[in-house]
Amino acid sequence: MHIPTAWQKSTYSPDGSNCVYVAATPTGAVHLRESDEPDVILTTTPASLHSLIRTLKTKSRRC
To answer: CA-CA distance, 16 to 32, in Å (whole number)?
Structure first.
């Protein structure tokens, strides 16, 4: 697995202690990690990540 060096902090991360980072790879995959466990990296596709974010936004509007 290629570990990206250009991690971008999510704009939804409110403070410096609990941050979600995202990085794209040349193969089109998307990597996600948390600031408190940077060695744990989740890999997904842009379409799957988009679907997850859309679902979470829909659920949060209902609460």
So the answer is: 16
Report, in angstroms and rounded to the nearest whole number, the Rg of the chain calculated over CA atoms. 13
Instruction: Specify the pairing of strand 8-9 against strand 30-34.
Output: unpaired
Q: Are strands 30-34 and 37-44 parallel, antiparallel or unpaired?
A: antiparallel
pTM recorded for the entire structure:
0.74
Residue 44, burial from CB neighbour count under 10 angstroms (0-12, 13-18, 19+): middle
Q: How confident is the model at residue 58 (pLDDT cuts 50, 70, 90)?
A: confident
Q: How many CB atoms lie within 10 A of CB 22?
A: 17
CB-CB neighbours of 18 under 10 Å: 10
